[in-house]
Write a structure and sequence with these properties.
Helices cover about 35% and strands about 0% of the residues. It is an all-alpha fold. It has 2 domains: about 70 residues, no CATH class; about 35 residues. The termini are far apart. The chain binds zinc ion (ZN). Zinc ion binds next to loops.
């Protein structure tokens, strides 16, 4: 844990954005959803301190993202609904085309 590590240089313990190196107050020690400077998604690429990056401390990020199993089910449902609507629209277009050419 970062809180148990003792060092003279506190910069080693401060989490920073891995994309731009920002470690200001707006980063909220890695708890912010995005980097205030570059907009990097900190959920996908969590902010880390030098101590964590060098492996001196284990990475125990407080906001570690766990995948919700319902998200994939919802994506499949949305995809099936989209394909249903596309097929329904295609049937309507074909039906109207056939009706227009039969006259
Ligand atoms: Zn950044």
């Amino acid at each position: 844990m970062l809180s148990t590590t003792r060092t003279i240089d506190q910069r080693l313990l401060r989490r920073r954005c891995l994309a731009c190196g920002y470690d200001g107050a707006l980063l909220r020690n890695g708890l912010a959803p995005r980097c205030a400077r570059c907009g990097c998604d900190l959920g996908r690429r969590p902010a880390r301190s030098y101590v964590e990056m060098e492996g001196i401390e284990g990475i125990a990020h407080p906001r570690s993202r766990q995948r919700d199993p319902n998200v994939e089910v919802q994506l499949v449902h949305r995809w099936v609904a989209f394909m249903f609507l596309v097929m329904f629209g295609l049937v309507i277009v074909i039906y109207l085309s056939a009706a227009a050419f039969s006259v």
